[in-house]
Predict the 3D structure of the following.
Amino acid sequence: MHGEARLLSTVSLSELLRAFRTRAGLTQAALAEKAGLSEQAISVLERGTRSRPRLDTVRSLTKALDLTSTEAEEFLSVARGKGGRPRSLVLPKDAAAASDPVPTPWQLPPAARDFTGRAAQIDAILSVLRVPAGAGTTSVGLVTVSGMGGIGKTTLAVQAAHKLADSYPDGHLYLNLRGYGPGAPMTTTDAQRHLLRSLGSDIAAIPDDIEEAAALLRSQLAGRRVLVLLDNATDVAQVLPLLPGSAGSAAIITSRDSLVNLASARHILLDALSESESVELLSGVVGPARVAAEPDAARTLASYSGRLPLAIRLVGGRLASRPAWPLQHLVDALEDEASRLDGLGSDETSVRASIASSLHFLETSDRELDRQAAGALPLLAVLDGSDLITGVTAALLEVPARRAGVILERLVDLNLLESVAPERYRFHDLIRAFSRERAEQTVPQAEHERALERVLRFYIAAGWSCQALTHPASPRLKLASAPATAKPSFADSASAMRWFDGEHRNVMDRAAQALGTPLRRTALLPELALAMFGYHEPRRRWLEMQELGRTMVALAEQLGLPLIAAWLQHDAAIPEVENGDLEAAVPLLSRALTMFEAQDDLSGQSRCCSSLTYVLGQLERLDEALAFGNRSLQLSHALGDTTLEGVANIAVGSLYNQLGDHQRADQAFDRGIRLGEESGDQRSLFKRLVNAGFSHLVAGRFEESIVLTQRALEVAARSQNQIGLSEAHQTLASAFGVLGDFETGLRHAAAGVDVARRDKDIAREGRALLEMARISAAAGAHSDAIDQARTAAALLAGRSPIHENFAGELAALLERGETYTYAVATNPI
């Protein structure tokens, strides 16, 4: 060829493409336009940066270059890496120079053999990053996988990356950025150098400047389909200069940080495994035979491991190396929560070390917020209870609520807390154990107690605020201490109820916790029990009222708080009455009356007398009941207290109804209801109307009952009293039920169920559903009635034992095939 050209023998793709393009007289830009490709794609192929294009790219080039069938076959063969020997193509000498091809990296760690679960998360990653054959992409695919240490982020990411091999034929890059140890985090500069060397860059040619190195990295990845797995990243700032810049490549980033500021990424938050997945993973480590032999122990081990993959593998590895150990032996060893972390590894791969590395990251951060969050974590774990809300955290840490929210969110960012709802947070069991361990080491016991005291004072203030809305005329309100901390702001009684619905179990748990500390000898717990009346009574949480009030009367007396003691004594009778033990209520109320007499408290005496009127009337001790009723009226007149007078009139009216003296009953009811109307207190008016309606119902005055209860329903609707709506519908259901109008009765019962369900009032929902079951049974719809009664029993379990028993007995009666005749239940609603 006289030195002007050479005959190609075995050639590279870059040489062959350049020769075909030159022969066709096309520039790179012209070929790109003709083939429907980017100019960049042609450039990287000719440079050798990409050596194996997609099949659809090869076909587009074959058509644009007008290759013969033989040339097309040879071109495809070279593109697939099988080499080629074109028989007639002559390559011009200026087309011979081509850069050496960039090495193809395959750096992924092996996928876990016993990978378990996470199907939804794998599918989510594949849906973002998998590229079907023949399809193109218009952007860089980005997925972040975040979660607490040991949750399985790396294992998941590696598993997904292996499934994506076909979509990224130009290689996989893997880099552990050591964001949370072991050792110091990798600098961005070092990470860039590692990636660029893996892509064939000469170390001497890599710029020291981060932005310049980032540009070089993006250039090296341009036109290629490479998957980059950046493991254990610190934050977004660390990873941004390491990401591809052109469509075609993609990245998966794992971190304990949420990385929510990484734009255009799909964010996947890993939670603990399910129980079944945890047991499956344990089975994969120790063998299915051992798990099958002790299934209960295996489930308990999964629970003790917090369903955390790292912890399960550590437990499983320990058992695998000790084949003679029963699983139950390790269950017994891990039973004590305080020392459980000791059984989950002891070196830098242990659960304790994993959690400690996250805390160390915060402690050594340059950001004040991070250091404050690190200091808060041990104190947050001091509290018993299932979760933390922002207001409680503010009281605990003695910071404004807004700052408390920022601290909690930062801990969520690092997956040291879980956000279970707006402004509500929860510890993972093992992080809680670690944090409590750290609290024992770093927080003095006296500060533990002061922190718990601040939280109890917060709950006391919240309780009084709630009671002021639900019982604005309650004489208990006069006994409230001045709030020593901020308190929740409730717009109305409904919002107060909902707040305590969510926080009530925490209140109970932390009150029980205080009983084990010197706080048990302070006035905090008796006042808390009294303040919570405003929630317990409307929600009919009688068992919790008993639980919280137990021993509080004696404690209040010891502390010189006689009126708090007297009101707690009175209120202790209410659960007994509601749960059907009227006899037990009488001595409690009698003692409360004596205690009020000793303090010359006429309002307390009046309330005790009206309560005894009702209870003794139910016990048919009518003469005693009437005497107490008249005394209650006399006391309220002496006080000039129309609220107490109205309550006493309703109690006396119910008694006259029992005696059959309907004229006197109506006079007393009219007086009590009129005083309620004059007071403007809609809740009090409602209670008087509905109680009068129920009294008429029990007395057999059904039409009068319906009239009064419909008035009560109107008052409840007008004042948006959801509890009242449910009560009124239930009373109307009973009235129509006893009249034999089952259709109307069922409609009211169903309305009562719906209102209670919307208000998330489980106890009242159960009571209304029980009424529905009674009417369905009387109407002959036994199958419906059985289902309704069983559901009611489940809802009432642990909330109202007497009504739970009623529901269970009704279901059992119907299942035996017995008939049921509707009658008015003598228990009040």
Q: What stands out?
A: Confidence is low (pLDDT under 50) at residues 1-9, 90-100. The longest strand covers residues 227-233. The chain is about 60% helix and 5% strand.
